Amino acid sequence: TNHSEWWRGAVIYQVYPRSFFDSNNDGIGDLPGVTQKMDYIAALGVDAIWLSPFFTSPMKDFGYDVADYCNVDPIFGTLDDFDQLIQSAHNHGLKVMIDQVLNHSSDQHPWFVESRSSHNNDKADWYIWADAKPDGTVPNNWLSVFGGPAWHWDSRRRQYYLHNFLDSQPDLNFHNPDVVDAVLDTVEFWLQRGVDGFRLDTANYYYHDVELRNNPPKEEVVEGSIGVRLDNPYAYQLHLYDKSRPENIGFLQRLRQLLDQYPNTTTVGEVGCDFALETMAAYTQGQDKLHMCYSFDLLTHDASMKHIRNTMETIEAGLGDGWPCWSIGNHDVERVVTRWGQNQDAIAKSKVYMAMLLSLRGSVCLYQGEELGLPEAELSFEQLVDPFGIAFWPEFKGRDGCRTPMPWENTELGGFTQSSQPWLPMDEKQRALAVSEQEGNRDSVLHAYRDFLHVRRTHPALCYGDIEFLYNDDTTLTFVRQYQEQRLFIAINTAAQDKILPLEQALTVLTLPEALNSGYVDGNTIVLPPYSILLASLPL
Ligand code: TEU
Ligand code: CA
Questions:
Q1: Which ligand is closest to the CA of 101, given by its number?
Q2: Which of 97, 299, 433, 462 has its CA 20 to 30 A from that of 112?
Q3: Is the pLDDT of residue 439 over 80?
Q4: What is the rounded distance in angstroms from the CA atom of residue 45 to the CA atom of residue 511?
Q5: Ligand nearest to the CA of 25
Q6: What ipTM was reported for this prediction?
Q7: Which InterPro entries would you find in this protein's record (predicted)?
Q8: Phi and psi dihedrals of 538, rounded to 5?
Q9: How far apart are CA 274 and CA 240, in angstroms?
Q10: Is 333 within 8 Å of 303 (Cβ atoms)?
Q11: Judging by DSSP bridges, how do beta strands 532-537 and 508-509 pair with one another?
């Protein structure tokens, strides 16, 4: 492992700008708001920020529907504000990664407006157009992740166009070389502006099967994995032809060649599909495609340590020289204390999940508010704005509950805004966990995060080391991390009861920050109190 590459083992803090801090009191967080909170982010001790989309957008999917790839939406500020954000981040020693939503644009994007205008315009083939079947029905059985067919009828062209997500998010046609050039130009625009890397939205969706073959049905549908909900027909297909196509490799190589002209830049590709491991391996092996892939495996409801170990071992074995990136929460999934912890013993669980995540091998994305131990916000149907949630309510409650504004203070508006109309309501339970409440409390989740991030930073084995698993059961995980002369033993107990393990080798227990419950050695045993971690050094 070459640890001179900053992104290996880096901790990336995901900011969802709409909900971070509102600097101009219109009820929506913005880029100057992020800049104003840069001290806070830097003080956490993370390496980088990942900004969710802030580009010009009609906001049908809250920015994941881009109408101008090279500009800032006025709601979020200006390009000058972005330049200031980067400068401030860099002054604080933080890298800046931005989201690139290249698979699809907004239907308001001038490219799509032109493309739909006729059959013979310059951009006629920039999106994926297909004729209706003779009986007028959709070209094939492909489905949208957000529900319904992946095809939308356009009355002007009298054709269908493909959209893997909302019908206002038409998929770009990557089989057209002009599209690839145009997309790479927009990536270069941001490289020239000084960004340090990209989170690539839906990086395995770029290419589709040109023959438009039907997806076969799925033999076995397993509920609980990401995006697999039995209420969504999408789960019942094997997505062989609508995404994860082999042609993508060539595109990723071109993207990498561009990145390599800008030293110290990186990519993390979001890969969610039926063949995630093979796809992640194909995208990250060989150092000529993506730097990292973002795994969905810890975003499911399965909090058992067996699942964690199994996931880690499978990916370790499958990735070869590829490098993973983990997260236990983001702007698409229920917050982890609710998803894994059922909101019980939330503070202790937040700390131990964090310690586990930050001890595993790989880079890590933390999602804003995780460092406060925020539970999922509860919203009524009337309060929802996420179209995905609205479509599947009440079986699926959507993504608004993890996107409510950051609570900075325990006041009515949480210190997020002075506007009486924040774009999503401030959640009462979250307010009680505001930054200001936790600052003065050494035992808080916030202090645990800061302190353990410091532990990670100062122990190269935690950042770059190999990993070898020892014992585990549903709620216990023990493993060794080794890098050069440093060999660490880590034991995690995510249960509400003590766990006693035999002491099998001589070890020196390292003192953990006081905000964490620490395990200890007692005679011939290792004692792991409820929700604790033991960190020890081992002889080589
Ligand atoms: O998400 C991609 C993705 O696969 C999602 O459908 C995910 O499975 C779902 O949201 C889980 O609840 C990315 C972005 O992260 C998401 O916010 C966007 O809506 C989506 O792409 C379309 O751009
Ligand atoms: Ca604002």
A1: 1
A2: 97
A3: yes
A4: 19
A5: 2
A6: 0.96
A7: GH (IPR017853), GH13_cat_dom (IPR006047), Glyco_hydro_b (IPR013780), O16G_dom_2 (IPR045857)
A8: -115, 150
A9: 8
A10: no
A11: antiparallel
How far does residue 56's CA lie from ligand 2's centre (Å)? Answer: 14
The phi and psi torsions of 511 (rounded to 5 degrees) equal: -75, 130
Please report the atom of ligand 1 found closest to the CA of residue 164.
Answer: 22
316 is catalytic: no
Question: Catalytic: 270?
Answer: yes
Chain-centroid distance of CA 103 in Å reads 16
Helices (H), 323-408: 336-339, 346-357, 387-392
Q: How far does residue 526's CA lie from ligand 2's centre (Å)?
A: 51
Both tokens of 155, joined, read 């009355």
Q: Return the percentage of the chain with pLDDT > 90, whole number.
A: 95
Average pLDDT over residues 180-192: 98
What pLDDT does 103 receive? Answer: 98
Token readout for 30 is: 């913005």
| Residue 147 in contact with ligand 1 by CB distance below 6 A | no
Name the residue with higher pLDDT: 382 or 540. 382
Parallel, antiparallel or unpaired: strands 197-200 and 323-326:
unpaired
Q: Is 50 in the pocket of ligand 1 (CB under 6 A)?
A: no
Measured CA to CA, the distance from residue 89 to residue 94 in angstroms comes to: 5
Which domains can be identified in the chain, with CATH numbers?
Answer: 11-103+177-454 (3.20.20.80), 466-537 (2.60.40.1180)
Here the tokens at position 287 are 């150092």
Nearest to 428 by CA among 441, 439, 412: 412
Mean pLDDT along residues 50-66: 99
Residue 228 Cα, ligand 1 centroid: separation in angstroms? 12
Distance CA 87, CA 81 (A): 10
Report whether residue 165 contacts ligand 1, using a CB cutoff of 6 Å.
yes
Half-sphere exposure of 320 (CA within 13 A, CB side): 10
61 lines ligand 1 (CB under 6 A): yes
* Residue that has been written with the tokens 């996420």 in this structure: 386
Pairing of strands 486-493, 476-483: antiparallel
Q: Where are the alpha helices (DSSP H) in 395-467?
A: 428-431, 435-439, 445-457, 460-464
